[in-house]
Sequence to fold (206 residues):
Amino acid sequence: MHLIFDFDGTLVDSFDKVIEQLNILADEFNFKRIQQAEISALKNLSSKELIQYLKIPVYKIPSVLYRARKQISHAMPMLAPFVNLPQVLQKMHDASISLGILTSNSEENVTTWLEINNMKHLFDFIHIESNFFGKGRVISKVIKKYSMDKQHAFYIGDETRDIEAAKQNSIHSIAVTWGFNSEKILLQHRPDYIAKKPEDLLTILC
Fold:
C-alpha cells in the first residue's frame, strides 16, 4: 500500500500562518485581504473559487506562493502537527505501509518540520514540486517514479483540488476535514473516503 500525503493543512497545522502571510502579501501583489469574519465562508470555496474571490491573477500565483513559503520558514519550528497524527503515522509505518509527501512547500521547510517533530523516519520520500492547478500531473510523476500500483495507492489531502488530482490518476482519494476546506465542499467533490480525525485513517486503511 502506498500513501501520498499533502503537507500544508494535512500534516502540519499551518492554516492560520498561511492566512497571515497572504494578508501581508496582499498589498504588494494587489489582491484582496482576508478578514477574520470571512474565513468560515472561504472554507466552502474550491481552490479555483478561492483564487477568483481573492482576485489573484493566475500568473501571480507562483510568485505569491514562493514568497509565502519563504516568509513562513522562520515559523516552521512552532507549527504543530494535528492532534494524534504522529501516532497514527507511526502505526502505519510499523505496519509496513509506504508513506510519502507531495508538496509545493520548500524542502527545507518540510525537512525542518519533520525533524523537529521526530517524523522524518516515517516517510520514504518527499517530492517537492510547485504546480497549483496541475497537481494531477505531479501525482502521475510520483506514481511512475516510485513504481506504485494504482489499485493500492491513496492520495490524502485537505483541499478539493487534492480529490480532483487523485481522480485524474485513478487512485483512491482520502479527504481530511481538519485542514483548509470544509467537510461540506469536500463531500461535494466526492472523495472515495472522508477522514474527520487522524484516527479515521487507520479505520480506512488498516
